[in-house]
Specification:
elongated, 130 residues, 74% helix, endosome, transport, transmembrane helix
Length: 130
Amino acid sequence: MCIATAISLLMILICAMATYGAYKQHAAWIIPFFCYQIFDFALNTLVAISVLVYPSSIQDYLRQLPTNFPYKEEIMSVNPTCLVVIILLFISIILAFKGYLISCVWNCYRYINGRNNSDVLVYITTNDTA
């Protein structure tokens, strides 16, 4: 319980830092949230790979669920191959959405970082053809 509370408080802190960094346009404050998103994406990818490599683990997991779990018997009666395909499709949708959110945070970081950059590009245009 203490570990779950500590992780929850840390996540709230990281999200608050990202919000503050975006609001005040401090790009460095967004990096911890971005790193968390990358870590979360990697863990979800490992889950998808483990479902793909060990499809029988889904049936083992379903057997370990409590007897009062809703729709447990209906899920257990589904063809294991079909269940793996459904779970992989669901995880793929989640990974695509997480990838989109990572892209959003990265674009926000690049925008703030570019906005705070003091370099100014100067283009000189002349009619000289030589």
